[in-house]
Amino acid sequence: MKYDPQENNCPLPYTPFRSCVVPRPIAWISSIDDKGNENLAPFSQCGIITFDPPMVMFSANHYPTGQRKDSAVNAEKNGWFVWNMATEALKDAVNISAMIVPSDQSEFELAGLAKVKADLSDVPMVKDSPCQLECRYVSTTVVQGNGELGTVDVIIGEVIRVHINDDYITPEGRVDIDGIRPIARMGYIDYTVINNSFSMEVPMTEEIRKIMNEIMAGSANKPVTAGEEK
């Protein structure tokens, strides 16, 4: 089977595109507006941009009316947002926070979530999330789609502070992803749980490994494992 999305000639009853780029992490973004109203919403069009400095992005589609998502507007106006890790234990709250509600209604309260204030701003964080990234707003790029719903605000933020629950740090000093059990989007209304990870070392010559270690030593001060990002 093959088809051209631009010609809208997909032979399947449901478009498979969003199930072809999977699994996708969920950016569970918390923010506040200029009146202090708090917002929490999940986005699966998201990811890491770079790691030095650490930067992340999420894409917020416009509403059919052309109205922009609160998360995007709040990040721009307030200058901060928090990326909370979405996990299996919190999946029902993640789903509830995806509801379309008035801007002055708190998704934290709607989902029954405990919150804690971020260190560097007044943005609330999901207390029970095992990892929170405090992000300083950097920029917005508007990508025009076929109509308002296809148009997105691509929000970029620099991670200024990282919070990790010590219960999920292994004795070797790694984040216990299998223990955290993050959830990810699979397209349609389907999700998955990350609970079975494995390692693969990228082959490289000793000469290249030496060069890589020298490059990374300036910021990490420790040898790099082949294929590992700092």
What does this structure look like?
InterPro entries: Flavin_Rdtase-like_dom (IPR002563), Split_barrel_FMN-bd (IPR012349). It comes from Metapseudomonas boanensis. The chain has helices at 70-78, 91-96, 107-111, 177-180, 206-220; strands at residues 24-25, 27-32, 38-43, 46-51, 54-61, 80-85, 115-117, 124-126, 131-143, 152-164, 183-185, 191-193. It has 230 residues and is α+β, with helices and mostly antiparallel strands. The strands form three sheets. Strands 3-2-6-9-10-5-4 form a seven-stranded antiparallel beta sheet, with helices on one face. Strands 1-11-12 form a three-stranded antiparallel beta sheet, with no helix packed on it. Strands 7-8 form a two-stranded antiparallel ribbon. The radius of gyration is 19 Å and the shape is globular.
In DSSP terms (H or I, runs of 4 or more residues), the helix count works out at 5
The number of domains is 2
Extract low-pLDDT stretches: 220-230
Strand content: 25-35%
The CATH homologous superfamily of the largest domain is called: Electron Transport, Fmn-binding Protein, Chain A
Please write the string of helix (H) and strand (E) elements.
Answer: EEEEEHEHHEEEEHEEH
Jot down its keywords:
230 residues, alpha+beta, 2 domains
